[in-house]
Amino acid sequence: LWHLYLSQGILFGVGASLVYFSAIAAPTHWFKKKRGLAMGIAASGSGLGGFFLAPLTQFLIDRIEVQWTLRALGLYSLVVCGGASLLLFERDRSEREEQRSEKEHYKKATGRRFIVPKYAKGLPFATLVVFQFVLSMSYLTPIYFMELYSTHIGISKQMGAVINGWFNGASFLARIVSGFLADLSFPIYLVFAIVYGITFSGITTVTPVIVANQYG
After folding, report:
1. Pairwise CA distance, residues 19 & 9, whole Å
2. Residue 26 gets which letter from DSSP?
3. Which helix (H) or strand (E) holds 8?
4. Which one of 53, 58, 160, 194 counts the least CB within 10 Å of its CB?
5. Which residue from 166, 169, 150 is spatially nearest to 158, judged by alpha carbons?
6. 44-83 tens-digit pLDDT
């Protein structure tokens, strides 16, 4: 089991972060007016991939077992992500070169090897980091436990993979739509109000049911 902790836990986590955030950051260099829509399209790839990869992975596990399935997925990631990474370019490197020059000048003047960027010293940046850390722990959890919970409530692994696939398919559409709305003001605020109204009302309804089912 420790091999899975090392590979699927640490190595996959680091590798996926390097791939994902590089790909997400690249479009911001090329779009300004429609940046939200561009980001939505870029982020939608994970939903589209998950739509067919979730049932495909279960299909492979049933036929060639876990070891060869992981090898196949590794090769797939190498070809697709490796090929796509060759297409990532910065639009303008002048600002980056200017910042690098300032850092080198500061290092020579002060003798320091490590410099904390100015934007990382403020409270807004620290708040954003903490928010993203907590958010990742919460909103990613159902994705990884969706298939496991399917078997827990009596659904087959195959159907659980199908449910996971449709979840990613819905995510594919939602990412594009949310990116488009991010470029606007009234529509995104209206959508927030509607979605929040639905989820907020569900909390007051479902919580007493959960308490009654568990504790009488």
Report:
1. 15
2. G
3. none
4. 194
5. 150
6. 887 888 888 888 888 899 999 989 998 998 899 889 888 8
